[in-house]
Design brief:
With about 450 residues, the chain is α/β, with parallel strands linked by helices. The chain has 16 helices and 13 strands. It is globular and about 55 Å long. Bound molecules: 6-O-phosphono-beta-D-galactopyranose.
């Protein structure tokens, strides 16, 4: 399959994150993260983070598969508690650093560009116990120290950095920040949005540090971008879609790219009665530290309508109802297949940020799968990849500066919400929720499809 209009040196890649693939949850001095703790609460229902697909011990074999598939980039994350087990140590854990030196060196030897996320949902649990994690401003300096260490160690090898993965998801699912979900709405969101502010400040400082030290490198956030569509042609549904998309996705991009918190975002917080503690320096810090590219995690569109009693509710997520479009296909977990939404979303990014380089850091189709005679016939994933790549190439033809595509996921991994039965990989791993089985890797049909795409579109 040949797609028109793709630039030379396009980075064809794939994506994973540390706690979802590595396992080895306490090996070589690694500390526990909030992602570990959160998964242990459901250990009796589904796979947790302890072993997952054991990439920590299989990484050589996994990199060989990436090479065989033809990948030009690999987007993965460094486990923060592998480097600072409790989060507050003065010196980093050498064994943790060694693991990532080996991985990064091997990727580079194989001509695969590392795209490295610093923090993908796994803040060291020690920081949550010590001072409440991101809810406290103290997290800012601990994150900066961690980033500084990553730049010292890997700054000369890594050209593409991502600071924080899906900050908006952390805010809407604040147990991922260690915030108690049983707290009343207002109290819970007060904490979550305060944490959000601290992440913005930490991230801005890290953007600046990277640009000062490594001016040729690229650094940005990995934003959860859900193209949000109105359920009807009525203006109030259109407005509901705009409000939600702006609040959830674009506010994150505005702060990262323009260094300013949008007024509509501040207004929503005050409607909810949330007061963010800020210092007099904060606006300056945000302005001084901005991203020079952007990662977007794009899976599907969401379709919304305004609730009839919308004016009554102060909380945005309660004013807006998500609806299902029965003409679209959905995964078993309710994520739709709507590839034109990707082109539309990319065009919106160009409208706002002109030619900022865009890396698609996640995009993928999940399903339950069985290995049959050593094969996995994942036709729906192939269709998903084909149609999304097609729409991405049309967007590039429209002038959008997409430089890399990294579907989620390179290999089967632990789903954040749904364990091991919800598979995303182009490589199948022989394990189930509760049985480790052989852990053998098998190439799915999508592996061969993507290999062909990469081979023919260089
Ligand atoms: C994104 C995350 C990923 C990944 C994906 C799929 O939000 O960045 O870590 O997990 O969504 O979600 P899930 O694992 O819940 O299926």
């Amino acid at each position: 399959m040949i797609y028109k209009g793709l630039p030379k040196n396009f980075l064809w890649g794939a994506s994973t994150s540390a706690f979802q693939v590595e396992g080895a949850y306490q090996t070589d001095g690694k500390g526990l993260s909030i992602a570990d703790k959160r998964s242990f609460k459901k250990s009796d229902q589904q796979l947790d983070t302890k072993v997952t697909v054991d990439h920590y011990n299989h990484w050589r074999e996994d990199v060989a598969l990436m090479k065989e598939m033809g990948m030009k980039s690999y987007r993965f994350s460094i486990s923060w508690p592998r480097i600072f087990p409790n989060g507050d140590e003065v010196k980093p854990n050498q064994a943790g650093l060694k693991f990532y030196h080996n991985l990064i060196d091997s990727l580079i030897e194989n001509e695969i560009e590392p795209i490295v996320t610093m923090y993908h949902f796994d803040q060291p649990y020690g920081l949550i116990e010590k001072y409440g994690g991101w809810v406290s401003r103290k997290s800012v300096s601990d994150f900066i120290r961690y980033a500084q260490c990553l730049f010292d160690e890997f700054g000369s090898k890594v050209n593409y950095w991502l600071t924080i993965n899906e900050q908006a998801v952390l805010v809407v699912a604040p147990d991922m920040l260690g915030i108690d979900l049983t707290l009343p709405d207002k109290e819970r969101y007060q904490k979550a949005f305060q944490a959000n502010h601290h992440m913005w400040i930490a991230q801005a400082e890290v953007f600046k540090m990277c640009k000062d030290r490594f001016p040729k490198s690229k650094i940005g956030p990995a934003v959860s971008y859900i193209t949000t569509l109105p359920a009807s042609k009525k203006s109030y549904d259109l407005m509901a879609a705009k409000e939600l998309e702006d609040f959830y996705s674009f506010a994150q991009m505005e702060v990262s790219i323009r260094g300013e918190i949008p007024i509509y975002f501040k207004n929503e917080l005050s409607k909810m009665g949330i007061n963010i503690r800020m210092t007099s320096e904060d606006e300056h810090i945000l302005r001084e530290g901005t991203a020079n590219y952007i990662g977007i995690n794009w899976y599907c569109t969401t379709i919304v309508e305004a609730k009839v009693d919308s004016s009554q509710n102060d909380f945005i997520f309660k004013r807006i109802e998500r609806v299902r479009d029965n003409e679209l296909k959905y995964t078993d977990w309710g994520w739709n297949f709507d590839p034109v939404g990707l082109r539309y979303g990319l065009r919106q990014l160009m409208d706002r940020y002109e030619d900022i380089p865009i890396v698609i850091t996640e995009c993928g189709w999940s399903q339950e799968e069985q290995l049959v005679n050593g094969k996995v016939n994942d036709q729906m994933r192939i269709k998903y990849l084909d149609k999304h790549i097609e729409q991405m190439s049309l967007a590039i033809g429209d002038g959008v500066n997409v430089i890399s595509f990294n579907p989620w996921s390179f290999i089967d991994l632990l789903s954040v919400g749904d364990g091991m039965e919800k598979r995303y990989g182009m490589v199948y791993v022989d394990r189930s929720n509760f049985e480790e089985k052989t852990m053998k890797r098998y190439k799915k049909d999508s592996f061969y499809f993507y290999q062909d795409v990469i081979g023919k579109n260089q």
